[in-house]
């Protein structure tokens, strides 16, 4: 496959680069590299940056114009992501709506649902939270117990969700609910759109290992939403949700490879300053890390090829998720080991440096978006066609 840009894509790349050169200045330039899909650091600054991107119509490039996009191609969307990440621009905060829920709604929503929600997401005016996981249903998501029952023109929802990223800033939640308790467990589930600001919804942040309050518990007690706010078929939410999870495994995390490269470069710089890079064993470990990152990069290129050729990723995105999450966790461990005892000392008020944040945040990466063990099962069953997992 030819990975070089054609003339139209080259022109678009130049436009994005020029825009970034003009706008990634001042406070935004001072905050290069901040944030991530599950990181709430520098929220207000990132939101201000996201609104600038929205004004320049650089968000959701491949979405139809009627929903605020440019009606562009997936290649252009990827070019934007590459250039934005390579420039280390602040990471936007509307991850859930733009990268996960939006594409799901584009694919499965009704025209009325799309017209109502997508333009506000593109303008960075409306924020979403994902209500899938429950205390007893994470990897075994189909075992979820939150129930929704019809009451006239509304659904009434009762249950508990957990680990809802950016839940406390969400205006709306897209929630998986059991709507038919008598159906087999994958079948009686629906995806409901639930306004977060109502008496039946109680959202409580959980403090994570880096001290941030990015994910939340969500208690739904007689929460209500309109009968027509179901995405896809009633009882057909499993298929819809699997599309969301697939998107999470590549597009949301594609920019990571640039962030990881910066982390590796700064580790090399610090070690060089300390005279450690003269040690052949240190050099060997750093070379191994660099090779691993190249493997991640080439896998991403392969995934981009599949996505642009077929419009879908399928189970192959699990290869990418498994590789980058494992690689990054190993880099975190390597940093801590090579930086020595000083790496274990935190600043006043639990202030963490970039290496410490990277190491601690990476612990979650082999869990969210489907844990490593689950990715391996998907690959074994759906890509390698090995016998199914015993249940
Ligand atoms: C930072 C972060 C953000 C998140 N954001 C969201 C969000 O916005 N919305 C949301 O709904 N959820 C979110 N999650 C939840 C995430 O999807 C779940 O944590 C994940 O699916 C794992 O579920 P669990 O935590 O219940 O672990 P469990 O499923 O209990 O797994 C525990 C361990 O057992 C292993 N295991 C489980 N089943 C099997 C099996 N069949 N075979 C082999 N091993 C197995 C797992 O791999 C894991 O190592 C987030 C999680 C994190 C860490």
Could you characterize what this model shows?
- The protein has helices spanning 7-23, 26-30, 43-55, 74-86, 95-108, 111-122, 237-250, 256-273, 280-310, 317-339, 354-365, 372-383; strands spanning 128-131, 147-151, 154-165, 172-178, 189-195, 201-206, 215-226, 230-231.
- The longest helix has 31 residues, at 280-310.
- Helix 8 (256-273) packs parallel to helix 10 (317-339).
- The chain folds into 3 domains: 7-93, Butyryl-Coa Dehydrogenase, subunit A, domain 1, CATH 1.10.540.10; 128-233, Beta Barrel (Butyryl-CoA Dehydrogenase, subunit A, domain 2); 255-383, Butyryl-CoA Dehydrogenase, subunit A, domain 3 (Up-down Bundle).
- It is α+β, with helices and mostly antiparallel strands.
- The protein has a 4-stranded mixed beta sheet. A 4-stranded antiparallel beta sheet has the order 2-3-7-6, with no helix packed on it.
- The mean pLDDT is 93.
- The protein has 12 helices and 8 strands.
- Helices cover 47% and strands 14% of the residues.
């Amino acid at each position: 496959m030819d990975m070089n840009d054609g003339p139209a894509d080259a022109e678009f790349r130049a436009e994005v680069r020029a825009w970034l050169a003009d706008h990634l200045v001042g406070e935004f330039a001072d905050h290069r590299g901040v944030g991530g899909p599950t990181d709430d650091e520098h929220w207000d600054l990132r939101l201000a940056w996201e609104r600038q991107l929205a004004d320049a119509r650089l968000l959701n490039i491949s979405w139809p114009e009627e929903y605020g996009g440019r009606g562009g191609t997936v290649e252009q969307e990827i070019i934007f992501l590459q250039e934005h990440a390579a420039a280390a621009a602040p990471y936007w905060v509307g991850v859930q709506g733009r990268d996960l829920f939006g594409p799901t709604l584009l694919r499965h929503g009704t025209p009325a649902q799309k017209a109502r929600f997508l333009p506000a997401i593109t303008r960075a005016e409306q924020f979403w939270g994902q209500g899938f996981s429950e205390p007893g249903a994470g990897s075994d998501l189909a075992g979820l117990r939150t129930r929704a029952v019809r009451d006239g023109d509304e659904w009434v929802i009762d249950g508990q969700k957990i680990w809802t990223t950016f839940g406390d800033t969400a205006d709306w939640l897209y929630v998986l609910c059991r709507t038919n308790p008598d159906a087999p467990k994958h079948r009686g589930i629906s995806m409901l759109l639930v306004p977060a600001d109502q008496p039946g919804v109680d959202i409580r942040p959980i403090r994570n290992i880096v001290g941030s309050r990015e994910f939340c518990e969500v208690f739904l007690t007689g929460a209500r939403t309109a009968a027509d706010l179901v995405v896809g078929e009633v009882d057909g939410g499993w298929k819809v949700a699997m599309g969301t999870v697939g998107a999470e495994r590549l597009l949301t995390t594609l920019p990571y490879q640039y962030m990881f490269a910066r982390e590796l470069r700064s580790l090399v710089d610090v070690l060089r300053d300390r005279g450690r890079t003269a040690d052949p064993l240190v050099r060997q470990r750093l070379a191994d890390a660099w090779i691993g990152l190249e493997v991640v990069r080439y896998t991403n290129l392969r995934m981009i090829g599949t996505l642009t050729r077929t419009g879908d990723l399928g189970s192959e995105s699990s290869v990418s998720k498994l590789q980058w999450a494992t690689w990054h966790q190993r880099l975190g461990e390597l940093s801590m080991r090579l930086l020595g005892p000083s790496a274990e000392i935190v600043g006043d008020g639990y202030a963490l440096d970039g290496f410490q944040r990277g190491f601690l945040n990476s612990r979650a990466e082999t869990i969210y978006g489907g844990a490593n063990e689950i990715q391996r099962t998907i690959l074994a069953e759906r890509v390698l066609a090995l016998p199914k997992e015993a249940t």
